[in-house]
Amino acid sequence: MELDQRKQRVLRAIIIDYISTAEPVGSRTLAKKYDIGVSSATIRNEMSDLEEMGYLEQPHTSAGRVPSDRGYRFYVDSLMEGIQLEEQEVGVIKSLYKSKVKEFESVVKQTARVLSQTSDYLALVQGPRLKESVFRYLQLLPLSESKALLVLVTEDGFVQNKVIDVHGYADVQELQSVSMILNNYLQGHTLGTIGRGALRDLLTELSSYQRFLKELMEGLEVTSSGSDGEKIYLGGTANIIKQPEFQDVVRLQNILSTLEQEALIYDLLSHNDFGRGVSIQIGGENSLPELQECSIVSATYTLEGKTVGKLAVIGPKRMNYPRVIALVDVVTRSLSEFLADSLR
Amino acid sequence: MELDQRKQRVLRAIIIDYISTAEPVGSRTLAKKYDIGVSSATIRNEMSDLEEMGYLEQPHTSAGRVPSDRGYRFYVDSLMEGIQLEEQEVGVIKSLYKSKVKEFESVVKQTARVLSQTSDYLALVQGPRLKESVFRYLQLLPLSESKALLVLVTEDGFVQNKVIDVHGYADVQELQSVSMILNNYLQGHTLGTIGRGALRDLLTELSSYQRFLKELMEGLEVTSSGSDGEKIYLGGTANIIKQPEFQDVVRLQNILSTLEQEALIYDLLSHNDFGRGVSIQIGGENSLPELQECSIVSATYTLEGKTVGKLAVIGPKRMNYPRVIALVDVVTRSLSEFLADSLR
DNA sequence: AGTTAGCACTCACGAAGATAGAGTGCTAAC
DNA sequence: GTTAGCACTCTATCTTCGTGAGTGCTAACT
């Protein structure tokens, strides 16, 4: 069944009211506060219909109604109007990306902070996906009698480093030669494709460095695999505590421990790949049982059209969607721009 | 006044009981559960004395007693016995540091995780203090028309990187030359001492790179200053919620927001520099008002005798001190050993 | 047919009171 | 110096009860 004009008006009013009060909304409140144009009795009938259709829920018989996941979804898709952020607010965000000397990691960290502060919810920024970056350059530096430092740089200017065991002394000369050979060969490879077999083609060329070839391969491989390089930065953990729906200590604990498991977060963000721009998961739409009461507004930041990482705001289903969407959008753009600038 | 044998016995029993129950301890409980050898009435008198002397506090008139900061301090300094961790537990911790290919940052992160999991409190690990590390090597790589990547490596094998603006095209050759000059000159300097004036002595040598000298200086400076390089990793945020004393939502929020401010944490850890080994701050002994109800057990991990960073466990004053001390100790040692191994 | 007023009914929530129980401090006897 | 006994204090918990917001239904109204 379609939602007629009046049902939409009612639903919209309920959601708006509930978002700002966190209290179940009753028909009388609605009739008084919002200009629906009919009496509370009529609204009651509409609400009853909306509940039957799955857009509303009732916490208990004699309470007002609360939006269901479906209700929120309809609101987000059809009822909500986008908003424009204050100039000044946008300014605050953009100023973050103006600093001259830039270490990417601290930029990511600050992004998480600013996103949590402006939204008043929890923010989450995933560092660059090295796996998908292209190899640019590596350097092997002697550290000691038997250890060397492997520094690896991608085309985008991301750096990764490891200590590897070279099993016995390797001098600068020797490491330099290996570096050169590898640099020539790996040029242009995507890090994700540099697997254990990567060096097979070079076996003859590298034969004199037999003793640490295995370590080197592992070094290159781990560097580029899994969630290794994709650190996740949280901001505003304390913000979720403010929300009345998360006063429950057990639930809070579940949420926090979930957020500490980077692998889960990684899944959370990758499942939500539909389409470009800002994407929204409401309540049960996300895959983590502990986050069923949350909504997640996320987006992908890019460099030269390629995905670098994701960022998200996590809040109660009752979140201020228009504002959060606008924030995520502007932060994502700013961060992408910043990256582009770093290479300009 | 000195605490006689019996007062000490009473104090000890109270603290042990309170640590395990989180409930104010009464005289009758004490007489029954602990072998003090006198009646509850006598214990009452002793408790009254102990309160007068500042070792105990009473939440309200008709409740049992609770240890004061001073009480805990006496316990930690004089009454408590150290414990030995289970072999198996030590094994779990040490196994963390056995992996072959090592990226230091992920090791630090895992340290925070294991420390929080084994202690069941919140753990905190501060990354390497680059400021105090010695310059080893730097490399400038062209990123684009006008940007270059500055990669900086310390003697300990820590890596830091930045994007700097070179104002117009700089080719590999050019950047290589600058790198060489800087490498020669900065050899052996402590990063903290590479200030804005660092390159003054090289002005003539570098005169042909005038256009990006300023940026370069800033790059080198920021790299080594402030809390920039000293990232702080948290583990087990969810653990503090378990503690009955932190059920209060407002307090919890204060604690969490405090912990997100790295600068504060940095202060917290540096104030506590007395002596070697594991150090303990109880309640009001730390400088942060939001953490007055917490105790902090911290230690310094080192490389070749020099401080690299700190780590800490934060829990309620009512924490299991012997266990946490043992854990912090073994983790600190393991991490230091791991670092030493990386350079061996 | 759709809308509205009226009304009985439900149910969570908060205040108020009652009760229990743990604990203290004091006194007097041992 | 130690202990038993006892009156007193105070919190935590449970129950009860009233209140008010809200619903759903019915019957009248437009």
The biggest chain-chain interface is: A-B, 53 and 53 residues
Measured between the Cα atoms of the first and last residue of chain A, the distance is 53 Å
**Total individual domains of chain A:** 3
User: Could you give the order of the helices and strands of chain A?
Assistant: HHHEEHHHEEEEHHEHHHEEEH
Q: Can you say what the CATH homologous superfamily of the largest domain in chain A is?
A: GAF domain
What is the approximate shape of chain A? Answer: elongated
Largest beta sheet: strand ordering of chain A: 7-3-10-9-8
Looking at the overall shape, the CATH architecture of the largest domain in chain A is 2-Layer Sandwich
Looking at the chains present, what oligomeric state does this protein adopt? homodimer
Q: Report mean pLDDT of chain A, rounded to a whole number.
A: 90
Radius of gyration of chain A: 26 Å
CATH class of the largest domain in chain A: Alpha Beta
Plain-language structure description:
The structure is a homodimer of 344-residue chains. Chain A is of the alpha+beta class. Helices cover 44% and strands 18% of the residues of chain A. Chain A has helices spanning 5-21, 27-33, 40-52, 69-79, 87-95, 104-119, 172-186, 210-224, 237-242, 249-260, 262-270, 321-342; strands at 56-57, 66-67, 122-126, 135-142, 147-154, 159-165, 232-235, 279-282, 294-303, 306-316. A 5-stranded antiparallel β-sheet of chain A has the order 7-3-10-9-8, with helices on both faces. A 3-stranded antiparallel β-sheet of chain A has the order 4-5-6, covered by helices on one side. In chain A, β9 and β10 (306-316) form a beta hairpin. In chain A, α2 (27-33) packs across α3. The mean pLDDT of chain A is 90. Chains A and B meet through α6, β4, β5, β6 and α8 of A and α6, β4, β5, β6 and α8 of B. Chain A binds a DNA duplex (30 and 30 nucleotides) through residues 24, 26-29, 38-42, 44-45, 47-48, 58-64.
